[in-house]
Design goal:
alpha+beta, 8 strands, 3 helices
Amino acid sequence: MAEFNSNATPTQDLVDSQRDDRSQESIVGMEHDSPVLNRGPRAGRVGVFRFHKDRLMASPIPLEQAERRGTKRDSPEAHVRVWPRLVARHAAEFPILSILEYDEVPRGRVIFDTATETFVIYMDVTLFADAELTRGPIVPVREALRAAFQLNGQRVRFATDPHYRVDFPGANDDEDMDSDAS
């Protein structure tokens, strides 16, 4: 797993309203780890992810395996198709997942925009540091995504999208079921 560069000083160019090819998208900001971005072969990955109890559960794939959709590169995986595998893999740690639907846990998707050479991370608003989305993602969320999707040294933009909304507001709250040992 890649390490987070704690010495980096990411920059953020906050934008209140921009539109991509997704409807009603809210752009949060742009950041990168250093003034010299990686312009060689892309090390980053794309894919779907979820967060539960501050734990990232991701399905990253290399850009070479990504589907081409215009100027975007995206994982062929769908959250609904990945959900049963994720529930099975994390059943011992998070038994509550077995009774939740795929859209009841904060989720998102990392894509690559070839036109801007930027990885765009669409994710649920609950994964941001503030309701106004001015401070970007919660730091552990940002660090985990950068590591899992190999995004250190890459240009990254965080965004919300109405598609990635938790339908069950208590899904990430503490549950007695998750702490049961037997």
